[in-house]
Design a protein that fits this description.
Elements (H helix, E strand, L loop, with lengths): L1 H20 L35 H37 L1 H15 L3 H12 L3 H25 L5 H8 L4 H12 L1 H24 L11 H8 L8 H28 L1 H4 L3
Amino acid sequence: MRLSFALGLALTLTALTAALVSLFWTPYDVAALSIADKLQPPSPAHWLGTDHFGRDIGSMLMAGARTSIAVALVAVGIGMGIGVPLGLLAAANGGLVDEFVMRGNDLIFAFPSLVIAILITAVFGPSAVNAIIAIGIFNIPVFARVTRGGALGLWPLDFIRAAEVIGKGPARISLEHILPNIANLLIVQGTIQFSLGILAEAGLSYVGLGAQPPTPSWGRMLAEAQTMVALAPHVAIVPGLAIVGTVLGLNLLGDGLRDRLDPRLRGRA
């Protein structure tokens, strides 16, 4: 388990480092076209080759990491920022409030992020911002359910009853006692949703609903390369491996964090 955690951490840090470095440096300008250099295989000049416009794939990959990670990170922030309070509210009040929150979650789950993105795009047009909104909306019920489930297991415990006896209200108990004790669940779920957010962003960009040209995106790199797989397979293989590696790294990282943060699994790990 330590090996998988180390591998997940290494893959995740590689993607994050590439995204951060791309903010101020890439080997080549991702907006510069060089038709004379198109579809070159990996070489000392272009380590990962060039695409059909002659752009350096390594530079595109770095800039695409920035787009994918930014979209996924903001979307997870939206899901956590709205879903966690809703889950705490449902667990603290129960009854009609709990029923209302859970049925609202079921309603959102009935519409996958791709369908939500299509609806948003039909009104506002395709963009990275609309992809963030679509993925963020889909993350809300996930965090609400995780938060509610963790909180319901704590409310009957003695230390919560003691807090009620001394006069603390449900909101204060939720913030001071419930939330810190379920933080490990939220951290682990956050890493999982982060990986799913990257995958969703790639999927939305692949069908033209995510980041738009000239903003680089791993999903759009795959979409543009699908007709050139036989001629230049590296154009599709490289962004595909980037998506697989990052998603795998985040999932391994999430599993490792779960084993370290959950007291029931810590000794076993």
